[in-house]
């Protein structure tokens, strides 16, 4: 990244941070709630909407005057917003499901999608659990830069705060998206797309009544929400389309995996399972992987061999680049033939 881009990221983050702290202090509320208000007004410059005292409003007006949207590209703005959300998780000690997907992982997913869809003129993306929208916008920006495609984008999120952060992030980046503020498991009328991507929430889904009709639901007790979301997502992929999911590395080693594997047969092909570097996780049990699924039908077929492996340390650039080259070769020789 250029020094100029880094300076721009810091500049916009400082605007967001300083105004957020002013709002937080005056209203005596969380940093996250204050950030949501700021993101909602920074483009319009509507200081009155923040309900501040005249002295604070004057300070904010001065900060907002520093922001010229046309001076920034979308990726710079995304990274600045990401920094502000990361600060919110630290300041407010927010629960784990607000954690942002690391950019390196988003870059890998975008890289693989770019290889598979090279030469295409159109592409559509859906994230059924988009959170703050960071993964979705990061991949969008990468495809825009690498393939010169502006994908049609859809995202679903149930959490109020995360949805508002995502909606503001898309708006500020000037990314047109169809966003659904709903519980995905309650059968949202989402579009059928070429690719689904998601950093899946892990754990049990609490409302058993809503899981009726899902083949991955548990026969006893609560069902795994990540299983349900995988099924929902791949049901919304066109024949031959792809799903890229961040999942536990031990996904297929639980008792509940039987239902997931049973659903997969005849519906999707497991094309790859790439463990992320173990150094990113506290222990083996918390390690995650990128799972690549392909919807059956169309020109889809089972790749042979399946792409299995573990990424080398992200710090070892030479080994990391070598692994990406192996993925390229696998795509050309085994996946897309």
UniProtKB/TrEMBL annotation:
Protein's UniProt keywords contain Nucleotide-binding: no
Domain DNA methylase adenine-specific, residue spans: 101-299
Span of domain YtxK-like N-terminal helical: 10-88
A biological-process GO annotation: methylation
Gene3D superfamilies documented for this protein: 1.10.150.470, Vaccinia Virus protein VP39
The UniProt record lists the keyword Transcription regulation: no
GO MF annotation terms: DNA binding; N-methyltransferase activity
Alphabetical keyword list: Methyltransferase, Transferase
Protein name: Adenine-specific methyltransferase
Organism of provenance: Lentilactobacillus farraginis DSM 18382 = JCM 14108
Lineage: Bacteria, Bacillati, Bacillota, Bacilli, Lactobacillales
């Amino acid at each position: 990244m250029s020094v100029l881009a880094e300076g721009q990221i810091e500049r916009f983050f400082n605007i967001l941070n300083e105004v957020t702290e002013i709002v937080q202090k005056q209203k005596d509320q969380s940093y996250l709630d204050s950030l949501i208000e700021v993101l909602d007004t920074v483009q319009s410059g509507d200081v009155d909407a923040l309900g501040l005292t005249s002295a604070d409003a004057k300070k904010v007006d001065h900060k907002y005057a520093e922001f010229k949207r046309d001076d920034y590209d979308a990726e710079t703005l995304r990274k600045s917003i990401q920094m502000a959300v990361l600060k919110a998780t630290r300041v407010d000690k927010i629960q784990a499901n607000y954690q942002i997907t690391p950019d390196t992982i988003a870059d890998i997913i975008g890289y693989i999608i770019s290889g598979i869809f090279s030469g295409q003129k159109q592409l559509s993306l859906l994230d059924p659990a988009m959170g703050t929208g960071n993964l979705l916008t990061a991949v969008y920006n990468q495809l825009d830069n690498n393939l010169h495609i502006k994908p049609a984008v859809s995202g679903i999120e149930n959490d109020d705060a995360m949805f508002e952060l995502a909606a503001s992030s898309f708006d500020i980046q000037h990314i047109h998206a169809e966003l659904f503020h709903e519980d995905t498991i309650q059968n949202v009328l989402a579009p059928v797309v070429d690719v689904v991507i998601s950093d899946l929430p892990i754990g049990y889904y609490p409302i058993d009544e809503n899981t009726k009709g899902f083949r991955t639901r548990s026969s006893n007790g609560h069902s795994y929400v990540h299983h349900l979301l995988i099924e929902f997502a791949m049901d919304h992929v066109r024949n031959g389309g792809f799903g890229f999911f961040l999942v536990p590395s031990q996904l297929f080693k639980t008792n509940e995996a039987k239902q997931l594997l049973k659903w997969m047969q005849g519906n999707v092909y497991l094309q790859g399972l790439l463990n992320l570097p173990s150094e990113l996780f506290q222990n083996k049990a918390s390690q995650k992987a990128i799972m690549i699924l392909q919807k059956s039908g169309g020109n889809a077929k089972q790749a042979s061999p399946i792409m299995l492996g573990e990424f080398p340390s992200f710090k070892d650039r030479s080994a990391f680049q070598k692994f990406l080259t192996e993925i390229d070769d696998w795509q050309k020789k085994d996946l897309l033939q």
